[in-house]
Design a protein that fits this description.
This protein is α+β, with helices and mostly antiparallel strands. The protein contains six helices and seven strands. Helix content is 32%, strand content 21%. A hairpin with a 2-residue loop joins strand 3 and strand 4.
């Protein structure tokens, strides 16, 4: 398996990256939130996804794809990775088709505390006690129903609330015709 990167070691969307030490570290960290870690690891190997229980190590916020695309002035999840990596400072983000009915969502990993207090229109925090479908750490290929747009590079690099709220607000205002208004 070959990999392509963006010049700084990050997998480019649309390319499956070979297992790296970073992906193994990410896998171990994510599996700490699985109810049955061996079964979750097997699910990743067989299906490419598994269900984890956020709330201790991390929380999650799902943002409507239309808002992210409006904020970034992009319209394809396969092209959003570099912009999201920059805007959200390397925070882990995966794309999930049909998260909001027929609309996809970008699921951003945040601290559990941020998720517990999250209240930004156009996005929803994942409930602490509910299972969350999460792609395997090396699933970075666009076109699958769920894949990492910005993979987990560093488990402690969760998204800060201010840049995420700013991105969501910018997209929300653009979609609702309120851009530039107080």
């Amino acid at each position: 398996m070959t990999s392509t990167d963006d010049g700084i070691g990050h997998a480019v969307a649309g390319v499956v990256a070979a297992a790296t030490e970073d992906s193994r570290v990410a896998e171990r960290w994510l599996l700490e939130t699985a109810m049955f870690p061996q079964a979750a690891k097997s699910d990743w190997a067989n299906d490419g996804t598994t269900f984890l229980l956020p709330g201790t190590r991390f929380g999650a916020v799902a943002v409507r794809a239309s808002l992210v695309h409006a904020a970034l002035l992009l319209d394809d999840p396969a092209t959003c990775g570099p912009s999201l990596r920059k805007r959200l400072r390397g925070a882990p983000i995966f794309y999930q088709a049909n998260q909001f009915g027929r609309e996809g969502a970008y699921v951003v990993l945040v601290s559990a505390d941020v998720a517990a207090q999250w209240d930004v229109p156009g996005s929803v925090a994942h409930h602490r006690g509910a299972l969350l479908e999460v792609p395997a750490p090396d699933r970075v290929r666009a076109g699958t129903p769920i894949w990492w747009v910005v993979p987990v590079d560093d488990p402690v690099q969760l998204c800060a609330p201010v840049p995420l709220a700013a991105l969501v607000k910018q997209g929300f205002d653009a979609v609702n015709g309120r851009l530039g208004r107080p």
